[in-house]
Each structure stands twice: as C-alpha cells, then as structure tokens.
Amino acid sequence: MITLTYRENMQDKTRLKRDFDSLRRRLGALGGFQYVAVAERQQRGAWHLHVAVKGRQIYRVLRSIWHSVVGVDNGNIHVRNPFKERGRKAILGSTSCRTIRRRLSKSRRANILKAAK
What we know:
single chain; 117 residues; alpha+beta; four-stranded antiparallel beta sheet; 4 helices; 4 strands; 21% strand; globular
C-alpha cells in the first residue's frame, strides 16, 4: 500500500490526476504496474492518493519518480509492507484499505443509481 502526498496544501484535483498519470506512465515503462488508486482530502483540504499495488515495489524508485513529478521538496511517499502486518485481517483492516473499500463502494452505489435512472 502506497500513500502519495504533497507537502504544500495542494487542492487542485486536476493537478493530482496529472501528477499521478505521470507517475503511472513512468512506472509502467519500467514494467507492469497494476494498481487501484483512491484520491482523498486531508483535514487541511490537501489531496493525497492511496494506491494499492500488485507485487513488490522498490521504494527508492517510487520516491525518486514521485519527487521528479512534484518536486524534491514538495512530495512524500509512504509505503506500507503488507507482509509485515499480521494476517489478512490486519491488511484488510488498515486505514488505507478501508479508505479504498469505502470509496469504491460509494462509486459503485453512485453508478448503480445512475444506471437505474
């Protein structure tokens, strides 16, 4: 599980999408990058991303690419190793996983409501 943040109070969702797209393309060029990403606002209003990825990721590469996209002094990346957690319940119960599940279920409900109209 990866959390991508900005040091600045970045409130532009279009920029968030553009920055993540740039990161995703660069990582995809290095090999397969399969993910599920969810954008969320912090309490201060700044956007950040929770990204669940398939397979092992190299922290230094992720950090280097994210810094090249948002600026060395502007971004941070937090990587949680699911194998260091204890059991499946710990992984599925983590804050980031709960956020992704909650956002996906909201979007699924919204799509069901749109389809019903």
